[in-house]
């Protein structure tokens, strides 16, 4: 595995971190969150146009930078630390990677260029009532309708599902499961924002009533394709979780240096030292897991799937524990609305449940590891 980032990757990380520090500070995150906005238009335009981050994992043929899981992971790690309010994860990590892996030239030519230049937002809708991404639990159906398809069903917990310009919906066709592209304003499509724990990452419910759609990746084995995409998404989300956990550690250490009790900084107390040391250990273990997963997937290594599931499973727990310890170390102020600590705990728990119950991911990990 790679020991760390290259010089070019370090520069990418520095640029993204500097940009987010200037354009997406805590005050801006809170402004967008409390206003119910999905993004700041100027920041999105700069992120897409000036930095080219929306096209980082899009093939050059379609206007992107042609990079992969490694570079996307670096960007998401920084965004996770900043709790960016923008449809980046849904558009680039979910829909963008799904389209790029589809092998469907028509679909890629039609939509990837819009994702690359930031003019199109998109998302992937799989889960329904159970919250699981298991295809066996998908009840939505698709029937041939003229030269297209008509999709019926309800999708829940869809990231940015209420605002995305394009929905990639998983439904069962007569020949098996498939992925169907539906424009957000298509007749027969009803979308609402759900009340959710994480106020910085909105979730939507999408109800489809014979909505006209275009099938994507019809020539591929959908189950195998979506399994491949899920691995890419798990690695991307693990990178974001790592960024959040690392920020919780930084916040805790900085506070422990300046907060005094009994005439001395609380960081000098053994209990606080233990908490920070344990957080550091988990963050660094998570970093090793994430970096190996992204390298394994980028190199199409045999253990890529196992590495992706391991990274996500580990980082889910590490981020949640780091967020809880951050609140604990901050004491009374950590429990208040005005402090950012609770925002990280909300993101941590939401991410941990994004693909269904954590026990399912652990069971899949055990199966892949042959346990």
Automatic annotation (TrEMBL):
The UniProt entry, under Gene3D superfamilies, shows: Acyl-CoA dehydrogenase/oxidase, N-terminal domain, Butyryl-CoA Dehydrogenase, subunit A, domain 2, Butyryl-CoA Dehydrogenase, subunit A, domain 3
Q: Which cofactor does it need?
A: FAD
Domain spans labelled Acyl-CoA dehydrogenase/oxidase N-terminal: 7-118
User: What GO molecular function annotation could you give as one example from this UniProt entry?
Assistant: acyl-CoA dehydrogenase activity
NAD among keywords: no
In terms of InterPro entries, this protein maps to: Acyl-CoA_Oxase/DH_mid-dom_sf (IPR046373), AcylCo_DH-like_C (IPR036250), AcylCo_DH/oxidase_C (IPR009075), AcylCoA_DH/ox_N (IPR013786), AcylCoA_DH/ox_N_sf (IPR037069), AcylCoA_DH/oxidase_NM_dom_sf (IPR009100)
Acyl-CoA dehydrogenase/oxidase C-terminal domain mapped to chain residues: 236-367
Concerning Pfam families, the annotation shows:
Acyl-CoA_dh_1 (PF00441), Acyl-CoA_dh_N (PF02771)
Looking up CDD domains in the UniProt record yields: ACAD (cd00567)
Keywords, ordered alphabetically: FAD, Flavoprotein, Oxidoreductase
So what family is this one in?
Belongs to the acyl-CoA dehydrogenase family.
Q: Name the PANTHER family for this protein.
A: ACYL-COA DEHYDROGENASE, ACYL-COA DEHYDROGENASE FADE28
The protein's name in its UniProt record: Acyl-CoA dehydrogenase
Q: What is the species of this protein?
A: Trebonia kvetii
């Amino acid at each position: 595995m790679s020991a760390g980032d290259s010089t070019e990757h370090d520069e990418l990380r520095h640029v993204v971190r500097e940009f987010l520090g200037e354009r997406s500070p805590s005050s801006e995150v809170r402004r967008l969150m409390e206003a119910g906005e999905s993004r700041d238009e100027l920041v999105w335009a700069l992120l897409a146009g000036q930095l080219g981050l929306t096209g980082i994992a899009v093939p050059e043929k379609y206007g992107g930078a042609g990079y992969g899981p490694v570079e996307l992971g670096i960007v998401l790690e920084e965004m996770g630390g900043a709790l960016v309010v923008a449809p980046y994860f849904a558009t680039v990590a979910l829909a963008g990677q799904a389209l790029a892996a589809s092998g469907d030239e028509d679909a890629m030519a039609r939509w990837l260029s819009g994702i690359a230049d930031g003019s199109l937002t998109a998302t992937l809708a799989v889960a329904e009532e159970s919250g699981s991404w298991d295809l066996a639990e998908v009840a939505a159906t698709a029937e041939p309708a003229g030269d297209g398809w008509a999709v019926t069903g309800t999708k829940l917990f869809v990231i940015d599902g209420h605002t995305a310009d394009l929905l990639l919906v998983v439904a069962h066709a007569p020949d098996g499961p498939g992925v169907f592209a539906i424009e957000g304003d298509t007749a027969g499509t009803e979308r609402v924002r759900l009340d959710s724990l994480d106020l910085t990452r909105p979730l939507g419910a999408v109800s489809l009533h014979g909505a006209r759609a275009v099938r994507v990746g019809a020539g591929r084995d959908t189950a195998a394709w979506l399994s491949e995409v899920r691995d890419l998404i798990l690695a991307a989300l693990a990178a974001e979780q790592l960024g959040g956990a690392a920020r919780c550690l930084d916040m805790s250490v900085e506070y422990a240096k300046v907060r005094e009790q009994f005439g001395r900084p609380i960081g000098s107390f053994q209990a606080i030292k233990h908490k920070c040391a344990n957080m550091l250990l988990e963050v660094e273990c998570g970093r090793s897991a994430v970096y190996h997963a992204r390298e394994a997937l980028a190199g199409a290594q045999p253990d890529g799937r196992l590495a992706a599931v391991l990274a996500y499973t580990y980082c889910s727990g590490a981020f949640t524990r780091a967020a809880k310890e951050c609140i604990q170390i901050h004491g009374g102020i950590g429990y208040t609305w005005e402090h950012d600590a609770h925002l990280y705990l909300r993101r941590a728990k939401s991410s941990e449940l994004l693909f269904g119950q954590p026990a399912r991911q652990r069971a899949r990990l055990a199966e892949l590891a042959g346990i």
